[in-house]
Design a protein that fits this description.
Flag_bb_rod_N, Flagellar basal body rod protein FlgB, cell projection, mainly alpha, single chain, elongated, cilium
Length: 126
């Protein structure tokens, strides 16, 4: 079992949050587009479950190809659940709540990284 690298995990979550925020912004931008289906990102837990342990190279020539970022599945919901006459599935209130959740999660992520960084710096100084 490999140790958990907190900074790497926080970076992955930050990337995921950026993709989710982008999807939410797209939903809000298309709130009045007829027939637009709400875009949703798979949960971060599922992204971590799919992640495989990958070997890392100490020099560039050791492996062909590079390590790629985890792909985040974006799915569009069709108009079957639509409650609007325009067949649009975007509910503005829900999207704003999701945006607030992303902001709070990003702030928590940043606070944890800052605290861990301070702890690491104290260990090095002392």
């Amino acid at each position: 079992m490999q140790p958990v690298n907190l900074f790497n995990l926080a970076s992955q979550q930050s990337d995921w949050l950026a993709v989710r925020q982008s999807a939410i912004a797209g939903n809000i931008a298309n709130v009045n587009t007829p027939g637009y289906g709400t875009a949703e990102i798979e949960p971060f837990e599922k992204v971590l479950d799919k992640r495989r342990v990958a070997m890392s190279a100490t020099q560039e020539g050791h492996f062909a190809g590079g390590i790629s970022k985890a792909a985040y599945a974006v799915r569009n919901e069709d108009g079957k659940n639509s409650v609007l006459p325009s067949e649009n599935t975007v509910v503005l209130e829900n999207e704003l709540m999701k945006a607030g959740e992303v902001r709070r999660t990003f702030e928590l992520n940043t606070a944890i990284v800052k605290a861990f960084h301070r702890m690491m710096m104290q260990t090095v100084k002392g």
